[in-house]
Fold this protein.
Amino acid sequence: MAYHDSSLHAAFTALADPTRRDLFEAIAARPCSVAALAANRPISRPAVSQHLKVLREARLVKAEPQGTKRIYSLDTAGLQAIRSYLDQFWTDALGAYSAEVHRRISET
Amino acid sequence: MAYHDSSLHAAFTALADPTRRDLFEAIAARPCSVAALAANRPISRPAVSQHLKVLREARLVKAEPQGTKRIYSLDTAGLQAIRSYLDQFWTDALGAYSAEVHRRISET
DNA sequence: AATCATGGTAAGCCATGACTAACGGTAAGT
DNA sequence: ACTTACCGTTAGTCATGGCTTACCATGATT
């Protein structure tokens, strides 16, 4: 897992934007439609849609069509990419525990 | 720990750039001077210096003056900021283990 | 079928950021 | 003291990315 890994890059890039972190947290708290996400925010609906595309490609969220609506919910694959990457920089005693977490996650 | 947290933003922004991830990994593998980092890379020394400033402000690396040289090494504070943030999105069985890791890390 | 609701896409504008060249500043060597 | 080595900063250029407006496609409703 090196610095040029594309899925890792997508995940970091996606979460580097405050608006996308906001949307990501909202979706993590409760699955949501695009219109609902745009309703309480100062940006337009197309802007939200573009951000969701970035989050989707980073596998941080996933969309499920439901009628004309699309319900967005969390996708842990992107989170896992970042977590695995960060784990390699943990050493000594901490490394042992993070490795255990990583092992348990891999089981699911 | 919300989406507008400034130290979190700094860490994500710093690692969103491939060149900075490259430098970060090199420093993590072995503490290094600025000139040494620039030597094997296609970018100029000032560019490396600017990237290191971003990594420093994100508390991902730290610099220690040694004569005219400055030796850069890993700073885990920035990593911890991201890790803590990601942990809140882990739930159920996984949440228990990540919480345990978080507790052990806090002890150090 | 006609309309409405929902949301993805395209074009264009503007702000941010990554890079180089040039400069300045400090520590070591002769 | 002068030179050399090492590094941070500034000014300026160019590319990238986020935003809005406008448009198009699809599913539900009457």
